[in-house]
# Entry
Amino acid sequence: MADKEGIKVEKNYYVDKPFKVDGNFHVKGASNLDWGMKKHLTNIFSPKSGNTVMFAFDHGYFMGSVSGLERLDILIPQLIDHVDVLMATRGALRSCVTPNFRKGIALRVSSGSSMLNDDLSHELVSVDIEDSIRMNADCLAVQTFIGADGQLSSIGNLSKVINAGNKFSIPTLGVIAVGKNMERTSQYFKLATRIVAELGAHIIKTYYCDDFDEVVAACPVPIVVAGGKKLSEKEALTMAYKSIQGGARGLDMGRNIFQSYHPAAMADAIGKIVHNKFTDNEAWEFFCEKTKK
# Structure
C-alpha cells in the first residue's frame, strides 16, 4: 500500500475549473456509466438544472417515532409533489407511499443501530439487492462511518452494496456519518467524501462546512448536502443557498422540512434555490409569501 509518510499536504483544488469528464451527461462523474445507471441518476438529478431536492424521512430506522414523522401516511401525500426524491426505508415506502407516484427513490439499505446505543457506527446491510430491485430503487443509501470504531465493517457494507448495485445498474449513495466525537471540518469531509467516492459510490451525501467548494472540487461524483438538525427556516434556506453556491448538486432535507410549520412551502422554497437559482433572501421572501395568512 502507499506509504502515508512524506505525502505533501493538499494545496490546489482548482475550484474555479469545472469537472472535466462530464461528457454530454448532466451528472458529475457518470459519463462513462451504462444506460441503466444513467437512467436511475436522471430520476434523481434533473436534466434541466442538474440538481435534486431529496426528502429524507428514514429517521425512524434508528430513532423510532420522530417529531413530525408520527404519521407518514398523512405527511407524505402532502409533500410528494414538492420534492424530486424520497429517501426512506422499504417499510415506510411499502406501507405509506402510494406506488403510482413518479419520483425518484433513495432506498435506505443499512441499519442495525439505534439511538439507545452510544456507538451508532456498527451497522449492517439489511436490504438485499433482490428486494431493492423489487422496490424499484434509484439508488441504495448506505451509512458510512469514516474514522469511527465501526469504520472497517462500514466500508465493507458500502463495498458490498456497490458491488451488488453495479451488477444491476443501480447507483449507490454513500451517506457520510458524523458521530458525536467526529469533527465537522473541511479536512474531515475532504477525507471522508473522497474515500467513499473512490470506493465506487456514485453519489455522496454529506454536510456543509467551511471551504465547502474545496470538498466538492476534490470529490469526483456529485455531493448532496444533508439538512442536519432543525434550523429556523431562514437559516436553513441560507445553508441551502451556500451549499448550492459551493457546488452541491442538491439538498437532502429531513427535519428542516417535516418539522417546519409549513413543510410543503419549505420544500418549494428549497426547490427554488436548487432548481431556479434563487438566493436565500429570494427564497425566504417566496416562503413568507406562500405562508402569509
About this structure: The chain has one domain: 35-291. The beta strands are 52-56, 85-88, 104-108, 110-111, 124-125, 139-144, 172-176, 203-206, 223-226, 250-253. DSSP finds twelve helices and ten strands in the chain. Residues 68 and 259 are 5 Å apart (CA to CA).
